[in-house]
Structures are given as structure tokens and as C-alpha cells.
Amino acid sequence: MTFQFTNLYSALGEKFFAPLDPDGLQNPEFVILNKDALSLIDLNPSSVNEEQVLHLLSGSYLPEGSSPLAMVYSGHQFGGYSPQLGDGRGILLGQIRNTRGELWDLHLKGAGKTPFSRMGDGRAVLRSCIREFLASEALFHLGIPTTRALSVVTSDEPVRRETIERASMLMRLSNSHIRFGSFEYFSYTEQYGALKTLADYTIENHFPELKSTENPYDQLLITAATKTASLIAQWQAYGFAHGVMNTDNMSIIGQTFDFGPFGFMEKYDPYYICNHSDDRGRYAFNNQPSIGLWNSQALAQALTPLTGNDAGTIMIKKYKDTYKTTYQTLMNEKLGLGPITSGDQSLTEEILDLLEGYSVDYTNFFRELSHVDEKSDEFFFPRLQSCAVEFKSWFSRYIDRLKHNQSDQLTRHKSMCAINPKYILRNYLAQLAIQKSEQGDHSELNKLYEILKNPYGEQPEHEQYASEAPDWAQSLQISCSS
Any idea which residues carry the catalytic annotation? Predict the structure, then answer.
């Protein structure tokens, strides 16, 4: 198994990382392998040596040309600045530019202690690896920018968390592992030469179109912020809560990054907190847009040695405009309304208020709305018959608005089904898959993964996977511990 490595990041020098080999797992075994993602690094699933791949994905085999390292960065965590963080359990094995010209990082999560591990053991556990695998692939197939997951491998090595668990590794693929916190680290340690080097690297390899602009560093800030605004608008439209939006968890290229206690909101609750460690609700669902702006302002502060006086002000306006337009456009698409017109924002806000007031499942409501007959004045939602009267006024105005569309009903139905998923990664589904995998049975995990690859399809044989959480799962909470 050979790779064509293009290790551009390691060429920056050791100010940016600590060179370090991964600490391989003993007696590794596959939990799940994303064969679709093998092509991203130019591997053919039918011709790979499975044993060799297992050793690579468990940290025991370093391909020729790899350049393993742990990246250094800092970040604002829950609003407070941590001057040095870094990869405490992750190793960037190297970078590959595939035959399509895409640059991909191969990053092993759970690869052992690094100089940045602090009090940690450098390991990941099976449940956290499974959750990241499922979440990143679920978001990808929904069409939301995200890192990818190639594999989960486990072992018989014990690690202590709340209980004794099995040490495991996840191979993450991403176009970049540079974070907002990467720039903060060099700025606040007054390493301005390194800050410029990192900015130049980011522009050259991720935003080459900015090189010819009048102020490329200003444009780097504005581009990162607008990509973040667009990403968070998509999170809000699909009901996804990240859980830990620290600046060290924010990707400079606008991908969903560093999955921890995430959650897809089920019953609509704008105050939804998916991380039970977030006792003040800083990263609650409805705070995500403002936190994205807060983080972008932190990035602006870090880039001040390079940017012009007006860059931060321009960035703030671009962020707000991008978020507002992207979010309302997505909600119009979810509602089947077509281009934004006067009154659409009010129509959106009113239905969300109703969903909140009656604890309606967010995903299932919009999926059912995709099948509505605009030629009928009848309110027909089986799950909402008990509160149909309360929804009827909104529904009548909604039907009137649909009549102004230029498209026919069948076209609207198809377009709504293409943006309103039937299947999302509900917490209880992930939990059931994890419980079976912890007992050595990975069949449910693989089945769930296959379902999530087709979130917009009907899949009648898997209808139960679109069901709301059972009573026992209503209060499932996830922490940062992994």
C-alpha cells in the first residue's frame, strides 16, 4: 500500500507542531470501515490489503513518506482563553493530494500521549469514535460541510473514564486541520512571523483565489467568517447542535469539526443544550449563530497584526448578512416557498414558535409538510391531530403563500423531499449501535450507517428509524468525556 504524500504542513517547521509517531493499538480489530471514503485518498476498496489497512488505521504502520506530528494551537474554551492546547490525542500522519487535486489530511484520533496531552492518556474510547464516525458521515450525506470519517478500530487495551472502556481510534479525513485557535496561538505569543506564515499557507492551499486580491489577509478573515456563517445557518436549518463551539474547534475552512457532545434536535426547542457539561447554556442551539460571530471576532483579533483597520467591521457585516440570507433561503426551501418574499421570515418564525409550544418533532414535521396538498384546505398531519386547531391559522396562510409559487405541486414535493430528511442521527439510535458494538456486535452500527447514507430516501424497510425517541431515551445527555 503506497501513498503519494504531499506533506505541506510539516514543511512549515517545528514551531507549528511536535513531531511524533502514533502509539499503535495492541490487538486491533475493525469496528467499521467507510469504503466510500477510501477513494478520497486514492485507495480502491477491492484491491487494498485489509490487514495492512488495519495496521495503518490502528497506528501500528507508518507508510513511506508519512510525516506524523501533533499540531499546536490555543483557543477560547467556554469564553475563557487557554494559551496552549494542541493535539492531545491526535496525530496528523500526513497529507495526500489525490488524483483530483484535493488535499486530504490523514488524522488519527486516539493515537496516544503527545506533548499537549496535559493530564490525559491520549486515547479515545469506542463510544466517542462511533459517534464521530456516524455524525460526520450523517452530515456529509445531508450536504452539510464536515470532516469525514474513514474508520473506527478498537482493541482490548483498557482505558479509564467513568468506567473501564476499550481504547479505540478513528481515522479522520479533512482538507485542513487548521483552527481559529491556530492563529490565536501565534498571535498571542507574539510570533508574528509564524502567524504570517500560517496565513500564507492557508491562503495558498485553501483559498488561492485570495492571492490576487488587494488585501489577502483581510479577505482570509472575511472568507473564514462567511464560510462559518453559512455552515451555522445549515446547522440551524437542519436542527444540529455542535455542543462545544470553542475557537479551537472551529475550522478555518468552514467545516463541522471536532465532534464531541453533539446532538440532532428532535422535539423543537430553541434552547436545546446537547452537552450536559454546558450548565450555563453558552452553546445552546439558539446561541450558535451569535457564538459563530463571537468566534469570528476572536479570529479577527488574532489576525490584527496582518489585517487593515476596517477588516473586522467588514467581516461582522458579511457574517450577519451571510447568515441571515443563507438561513432564510434554506427555510424557504424546507417550506417549499421558492425565492424569499416579504412575509416569509414571519411565516418561518411563527411555525417555529408553534413547533416549540407543542413539542413537535422538527425533522418529522418538515418531512410531512413535504407531502402536503396545496389544493386542499384540510390540515392533515397525523402526528398533530391533537393540536390541529392551533396550527390551522398558520396552515391557511402557508397554503395561500404556496399558491404564489411558479412551480407545480409535484416539482415542489420533490424539491422539499430533497431538503427535508426522513432519517437523521437521533441520539437513541447512536446509543443502541454503541451498546451493541461495545458487546462486539457491529451489525447495528453498519446498518445505521447505511441508512444515514440515504437520509432523503423513503427506505420503507427502515421506517422505524424515522421514529421519535422512545420514553427511555428522551433524557439522553452526552458529555465531553471520551
Answer: 248
State the Cα torsion 399-404-405-408 to the nearest 10°.
70
Range of the domain at 165: 10-180
**CA–CA gap between residue 391 and residue 278 (Å, rounded):** 33
Could you report the per-residue pLDDT of 335-346, keeping only the tens digit for each? 999 899 999 999
Q: How many domains does the chain have?
A: 2
Q: Which of 146, 167, 144, 152 is nearest to 26 (CA)?
A: 167
pLDDT of 475 over the 70 cut: no
- How far apart are alpha carbons 413 and 416 in whole angstroms? 5
Question: How many other C-beta atoms lie within 10 A of the C-beta of residue 330?
Answer: 18
Count CB-CB contacts under 10 A for residue 101.
6
Verify that 105 and 231 share a domain, yes or no: no
* Assessment of whether the complete model's pTM goes beyond 0.85: yes
For 133-165, the pLDDT digits (tens) are 999 999 999 999 999 999 999 999 999 988 999
**Residue 8: which residues within 8 A CB-CB, separation 6 or more?**
95, 103, 201, 205
Do 132 and 234 fall into the same domain? Answer: no
Q: Is the predicted pLDDT of residue 438 greater than 80, yes or no?
A: yes
Spell out the residues 6+ positions from residue 341 whose beta carbon is closer than 8 angstroms to its own.
404
Do residues 144 and 240 lie in contact, with contact meaning Cβ atoms separated by under 8 Å?
A: yes
394 CB burial (10 A radius; 0-12, 13-18, 19+): middle
Q: What is the full DSSP assignment across 51-93? A: HHHHHHHTTS---TT---EEE---EEETTEEES----SSEEEE
Phi, then psi, of 120 in degrees rounded to 5: -80, 165
CA distance 128 to 478: 10
If asked whether residues 121 and 263 sit together in one domain, one would say no
Is residue 480, in this structure, part of any structural domain at all?
no
pLDDT bracket for residue 479 (50, 70, 90): low
Residues 6+ apart with CB under 8 A from 211: 203, 204
Give the residue carrying C-alpha cell 494559551.
Answer: 83
Helix (H) or strand (E) run with residue 196 in it: helix 192-206
